[in-house]
Design a protein that fits this description.
It is built from 22 helices and 31 strands. By secondary structure, it is an alpha+beta fold.
Length: 738
């Protein structure tokens, strides 16, 4: 790589990391923003065209133009037809942006978000140059100011999010062509996977030859096949010629299915397939970063191969950057293959446990394949299947077993206990030690405590062997914990803080006429004068204080709605849980408040924001109000809000059925809402299941019929009334045992 290329990639990496932090940490960027702002009839680009007609003489709107990606139905951004060339021109555009903020505040706010989601690296499409710095800072500064090491930061590197977002740049993610061999058979040309180096021909655990989920590349030829890279890409559809004689076929590397060149050309012309659709691959590594290698025969020699797994790719070139918290498929049509559920590196290592070369470090066993990982603030990590979490919460499952290597990762000494959170509920987990099935109490007792009827219900062979007397596993008891009813309080006015204490105060986003945020009165002024609050910063940690917005405009009382304030309080609670060594002393809201809400109204909002962390400390007078139920607009007394976790997002269900993300944004995507309903009924024990034509469906109490598979979960795919009737007739209560 040349010096210029290196500087370019380094600059891109720096910007990519900042983009990742903003999207995963900001309380202003919502999960659905990328899809909503860049696609569909309500996208920023679509609304821009309408505003151009509304304000035909606007110089700013005239200079803003939609720019689409090359992909059909792909994302569309907004750029400048002519970029400002000097400081005077830039200032003029910034002034026009401030005027737009007064005229069309909702569109303006989305335009600011769009400028951030375009990425922090300046490109010819970026409009960041003309966005008032205070409005971008309101979103970016709170993220940077409270930055601390966390597993999320490690995920940026471990999951290769820089590569995933820059897949279209071949200097960062090279494209390779897989090696195939096609032979002439009675059925015509077919792929001979036994003689195909790239795709593994003998795989277990549901990974079949030709599926493309795993590939291996000979390290001997890394200079030409990309085996020395961490990320690679391949075209989904590959032309393969016969080993001998004429003939060419096209193979779909994601399924192994083949078609004639004629059929592929026809489908491409009909836009049923894309010739340039890309599939991403990431090198498989152990926890300490050692690449997984296996030995395979290549010709007459036994060579070492690196293993790569199929992964999702994100964003759309210069249009938009995309950084999800989970490696789920991109929300965009970015001409990449969507992997519904990525395999974990540990699970892949377990599959090849017998083939791994000695240079590879600790090999995890099969139970490390888990679809949900919950980490409590103490640092104890337990991997658990979602279905088993439901069993734990209902008391059906009271034990779990782990191998020696997994026990080291959990790090609870034998005979000792730790508090672990499963599905939002704390449990006491005790390590009984490494035991045989008889030492654990016998097969019948363990089947009962695991919540299964027979060993066949266990997912992994290792567990099946153990309950039948083979080997030893670590056994952990799981017991529920009664929530504490006590609450720590303080009295009087706060005038000083201990080193581990944080003062929580109400803040604003500025004035109704566009003025900057200020800490000019009440608890906000105290925080600024005594505890390090930063003038102009509306949210988050600042010095020894923490701000939540309780009054959107400082000159308009009740300008923040109860739901908006609740979302701010939820953010505080989450931050407190992640900083359990600190105490958060909340300013006294028990009497009259500058935001226009009464003490009881504020208390109801703190109560309805969810479980109150033990390190949240209220004034003794306010604490009494928090335990008193009354009525706030939009909140019904006696009906606590229900929180459901879907795709790692906490979604709150209001008594009126509306759903909100933690940051206060209402859930609008119907499939997401359906997934919440499925999870809720699963927890309530009311979810039903039915089958039709070998397909399984979930049936809700209201009669909705939803898909249950990986690709159609939560989707309403059945429209025929007769089929619906048959599905409803056969519906039975859902009982999942795996």
């Amino acid at each position: 790589m040349s010096a210029d290329d290196f500087d370019y990639v380094a600059k891109k990496l720096k910007s990519s990391f900042l983009d990742f932090l903003i999207q995963t940490r900001s309380t202003s960027i919502f999960p659905d923003d990328i899809k909503n702002l860049f696609t569909g009839e309500n996208s920023v680009a679509s609304r821009l065209l309408k505003l151009k007609k509304k304000y035909p003489t606007s110089n700013l709107l005239s200079n803003l133009v939609p720019v689409s990606s090359l992909q059909e139905n792909g994302p569309v951004t907004v750029s400048l037809k002519v970029k400002p060339t000097d400081a005077i021109d830039v200032d003029m555009h910034i002034g026009m942006m401030r005027e737009l903020k007064e005229q069309e505040p909702e569109f303006y706010n989305d335009l600011v978000k769009l400028s951030i989601l375009q990425g922090t690296m300046d490109t010819n499409l970026s409009i960041a140059l003309i966005v008032p710095v205070e409005d971008r800072a309101a979103i970016i500064a709170p993220v940077i100011n409270v930055l601390q090491p966390s597993s999320e930061l490690e995920a940026f590197n471990k999951e290769g999010l820089f590569y995933r977002n820059n897949f279209s740049d071949s200097s960062i993610v090279p494209e390779i062509k897989p090696r195939y061999q096609a032979v002439d058979t009675e059925l015509g040309l077919q792929i001979d996977y036994g003689k195909t180096d790239t795709f593994l021909a003998s795989i277990t655990n549901g990974i079949t030859p030709g599926s493309g989920k795993l590939v291996s590349l000979n390290n001997k030829y890394s200079f030409m096949n990309g085996a020395d890279k961490d990320f690679l890409k391949m075209k989904r559809y590959q032309y393969v010629s016969a080993i001998s004689g004429p003939g060419t076929i096209v193979v779909d590397i994601t399924s192994g299915k083949t078609m004639s060149v004629k059929d592929f050309t026809r489908l491409s012309n009909e836009q049923a397939v894309s010739k340039n659709e890309m599939v991403g691959y990431k090198k498989v590594k152990s926890e300490d970063g050692v690449p997984l290698t296996i030995q395979r025969k290549s010709g007459k020699s036994l060579d070492e191969f690196s293993v790569f797994k199929m992964v999702n790719l994100y964003g759309s070139s210069r249009i938009v950057a995309e950084y999800p918290k989970l490696m789920t498929p991109s929300t965009l049509d970015n001409n990449t293959f969507k992997v519904e559920e990525e395999l974990t590196d540990n699970a892949i290592i377990a599959i090849f446990a017998g083939e791994v070369v000695p240079t590879t470090s600790v090999i995890a066993d099969e139970q490390s394949l888990a679809s949900e990982v919950l980490e409590e603030a103490t640092g104890v990590t337990i991997q658990m299947q979602p279905a088993n979490i439901e069993k734990i919460k209902t008391g059906i499952k009271t034990t779990t077993t782990r191998s020696e290597s997994q026990s080291k990762q959990i790090n609870i000494p034998v005979g000792e206990s730790a508090i672990v959170n499963f599905g939002g509920q704390d449990f006491k987990v005790t390590n009984r030690g490494q035991l045989t099935i008889d030492e654990a109490g016998g097969k019948e007792a363990m089947l009962k405590s695991e919540g299964v009827q027979s060993e066949e219900e266990f997912m992994y062979q290792q567990t099946k062997d153990w309950v039948n007397g083979k080997g030893k596993l670590y056994v952990y008891d799981i017991a529920s914990i009664e929530p504490s009813t006590g609450a720590k309080t303080y009295s009087g006015r706060i005038t000083s803080l201990k080193p581990n204490q944080i003062f929580v105060f109400g803040s604003n986003e500025g004035g109704s006429q566009g003025q900057a945020p200020t800490h000019g009165a009440g608890a906000a002024k105290l925080a600024k004068d005594e505890f390090g609050a930063v003038q102009g910063q509306s949210r988050g940690l600042q010095g020894q204080s923490y701000a939540i917005v309780t009054k959107k405009f400082y000159d308009v009382k009740r300008s923040s709605t109860p739901q908006e304030i609740i979302s701010e309080i939820k953010g505080l609670y989450n931050y407190a849980r992640n900083n359990s060594d600190k105490e958060f002393l909340v300013s006294d809201y028990s009497e009259s408040n500058l935001n226009g809400y009464s003490g009881q109204e504020m208390a109801d909002m703190f109560s309805n924001a969810g479980p109150i962390p033990s390190n949240i400390v209220f004034n003794e007078n306010f604490e009494k109000l928090v335990t008193t139920q009354t009525t706030v607009e939009g909140i019904t007394p006696g009906q606590p809000l229900r929180t459901i976790k879907v795709n790692q997002f906490n979604i709150t269900i209001q008594p009126d059925g509306k759903m909100f993300y933690d940051n206060g944004k209402e859930v609008t995507d119907q499939t997401t809402k359906n997934k919440v309903s499925i999870r809720k009924e699963l927890q309530d024990g009311t979810l039903r299941v039915s089958t039709y034509n070998n397909s399984e469906y979930f049936v809700l109490l209201d009669g909705r019929i939803l898909g249950s598979g990986k690709t159609n979960l939560g989707k309403e795919t059945v429209t025929d009334p007769k089929i619906k009737e048959q599905i409803l007739d056969k519906a039975v209560l859902y009982r999942k045992t795996c």
